[in-house]
Amino acid sequence: MAAKTAGSRPSGSKVAIARRGLMLVLSSPSGAGKTTLSRMLLDHDASVELSVSVTTRTRRANEKDGRDYHFIDKARFTHMVEAGELLEWAEVFGNLYGTPRAPVEASLAAGRDVLFDIDWQGTQQLREKVRGDMASIFVLPPSMSELERRLRARALDDERVIRGRMAKAGDELSHWPEYDYVILNDDIDRAFADVRAILAAERLKRERQIGLSALVRGLLAQA
Fold this sequence. Notes:
Elements: E1 23-27, H1 34-44, E2 48-50, E3 54-55, E4 70-71, H2 74-82, E5 86-92, E6 95-100, H3 101-109, E7 113-117, H4 120-130, E8 134-140, H5 144-154, H6 159-173, E9 181-184, H7 188-203, H8 212-222
Parallel strand pairs: 1-7, 1-8, 2-7, 3-4, 8-9
Antiparallel strand pairs: 3-6, 5-6
Helix pairs in contact: 1-7
């Protein structure tokens, strides 16, 4: 049997190609499923981490500071905006939300993917600043009546807030053409499979696989 050459790998071994991480954005009207899909993806894929936003919103009883959001006051938020510390920010239902820049940039450079659960305003700002690092998905509900049913079923908001979310849903839906991908969430398992397929394809884009040049040079040297 022929001896293995130095540095050779066993047949079938996997070659890891260095790559830059990507920013995966999920947006939808409240109740359409982006948060559920985000949680499913985080549970399924250890290579994906959630971008934890800062917000001036009051913390809910089931939320933990630093896990769900970084809860800060308006003065601190304003300082972060003025200092350029946020990749994007927006006011939603009277509260301010924003994405800290430093942890996201560190994750991308280390080859980790960052998941964003944000609205169309934040997505527009990210596109203007980091278009090459971003892939965006808009999640559609199967019907407006189903959207309202989901909002009521989760029992997080009072009647006034639910009416406000439904009133805003039409405006949010009008921004679907601005996204790279659009999926219909009429079945959560099928919608999740679509999200996973999109992520797999985006990871394989040539420009994100920063180790390809070295790999190909090595292949050519062996030719």
